[in-house]
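FW: tagging you since you asked about this chain on Friday. Here's the raw sequence from the shared folder, copied in full. Didn't touch anything.
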Amino acid sequence: MKSYWITFTLLVVVCATGSAQDDILGKWKTIDDETGDPKSIVEIYERGDRVYGKIVKLFRNGDEDPDPICDLCPKDDERYGKKIIGMEIIRDLQKEGNEYTNGTVLKPDEGKIFKCKIWREEDKLKIRGYWGFFYRTQTWVKAY
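HL: got it, structure written out here
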């Protein structure tokens, strides 16, 4: 009976450690920090030892194109002229302590690429884009 409890305790510790590393993975609802309206659903996933994010859904008004392309993306970027739904907007994030850093984020509605980092704060995901010394932080909420 004692070995059962030891095994159970070890299993709980291993599962808790694994989920702490993966707590940013999954689908997140992006929120416009100016209006408070939902903008999209971004799926955060691992590929190799890096973390990436792609847009899987857009929340559009009736007068907006429901399936837009990235016509504002830099013309030398392979995402230029491609559909935004399905587009990888977060690239090459590396785990560094409790944060994922040294990656980039594309803001398709502006066509700008920023250095970025992401981290969890309670049940929310924080994403910070940098342009030189200036930065802007958004808060995303778990989608499902």
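FW: The longest strand covers residues 38-47.
HL: agreed, and Helices lie at 2-21.
FW: great, closing this out.
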